[in-house]
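Escalation from tier 1.

The customer reports that the assembly of four entities below gives different structure tokens on two consecutive runs. Tier 1 could not reproduce it. I'm attaching the input and our single run for tier 2 to review.
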Amino acid sequence: MSVKSVSRALDLLEALAVPEEVGLVELATRTGLQPSTAHRLLGTLIERRYVVQSAATGRYLLGHKLNEIAVAVAKRTEHLRELARPHLETIKKVTGESANLTVLEPPNIVYVDQVEGSRSVRMFARIGAAVPAYATAAGKAMLAQMPPAVVREIYGDAPLEQLTPRTIASVEALLAELDEVRERGFGVDREEQEPGVGCVAAPIRGDGAVVGALSVSAPMPRIDAADPAELGELLISRADAVSMSLGFVVGSRR
Amino acid sequence: MSVKSVSRALDLLEALAVPEEVGLVELATRTGLQPSTAHRLLGTLIERRYVVQSAATGRYLLGHKLNEIAVAVAKRTEHLRELARPHLETIKKVTGESANLTVLEPPNIVYVDQVEGSRSVRMFARIGAAVPAYATAAGKAMLAQMPPAVVREIYGDAPLEQLTPRTIASVEALLAELDEVRERGFGVDREEQEPGVGCVAAPIRGDGAVVGALSVSAPMPRIDAADPAELGELLISRADAVSMSLGFVVGSRR
DNA sequence: AAGCCTCTTTCCGTCATACGGAAAGCCGTG
DNA sequence: CACGGCTTTCCGTATGACGGAAAGAGGCTT
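Tier 1 run:
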């Protein structure tokens, strides 16, 4: 943990990412800071419009400055989102399940768009949320497109964090599975990221590198009922369509 | 300027809010920091996923964590945006000019949604951007709904910053104009925020307080050609429609 | 292929400055 | 009117952020 005050200021921002206004003492408690410290840091955040203080209650909430900056992030994936959106809709229509667009931000994947499924029990991921790539179908689909040496570098030799009992435990096991994924063209996650939830995903390739992945996620029994292999074929066809509109010549393995 | 390192970290974030990746030295130059200082601060931002470092180039770009947090900000205005959107479309259709939805974040107004006009020369404001309320039609429309004492408190007795030669110069003059705005129901900005640009706006009221404003902005000659008074009537009718769908009983002054 | 230049990264001694305990305002409530 | 909770301010201390300098890493040119 490098610069303490910056880290603490970010803690405050994240603690404010809730629907209601939050009071100083509660913020301090949640972030483990002294009220006076929180107050000083908030002062700086307010000065910069990242935080606003309600005139009526004195409590704090996030300012719109954050949006101004987040727009710049969103612009980076705007083109990809536009191209992928119709295919997300298709996937949702065919399967009835939630369809996601993700990008790789090593060592994580990040959800950048989603179409929610029509079932009453459906998966939903907050846009912007990050999950370890090795624990997800989309992550595996994307990692499989990269040289094993790069994957090794991303994860080093520390053991992989176990999110569920079925999470892949070692980099060696991950690399072995990535071979399979590359072979068959799609990745699968069987309750590896969250108990009871499964996911199937295929990579979107631009010129030179993998740029994202399409995935479906659903309760594990429904994934099995739909047959992972068939879902895989659907996702490959949709992802390849996006790849092609990005100018990638599908068919050439890498 | 309160906490230096936090302030500098935010400088870095803002310097990264551009389409391309940025190198360390350039970032340091732009923000006026030493490269070693910038590097240390970036380390913290990277640790927290606010910034990502490209594996290929070593240069820096914003991470998706920002989106995750910005979503929380956007949610606060989601309902209002949904209600106002069709009216923005209408305003754009009738006038051909850009229509904006703004909220008050004293002492500024913030753009939270926009429909771009169809003319080749059209106004556009970045969503999330903030502008002093006293210099804009939308700001005046909203401030006019508040007790003068509150307005006085917001601006204190420091002279108002002059954004153009026509910007309102004093709080006294502002309060006088707010009386007029309240009387006729809409606010006007005649090149007060930006030379050559004019704006007309009407307030959206929820139960108890003003919650936002609708505005049209265009080059000054086109505002005059369309007749500010007529634009005002259009905006009032649209804004009142939004107010009504928020449960506000239109007709009662305050 | 070798060397140069620019960029990123690390190191470390100094002193500015962020920290946090404590006390002071400020409200709304009983 | 006094109490309890909140936000805000103050200030002495020592932590930890700073930045100069040097080392490491690529990428280009010659």
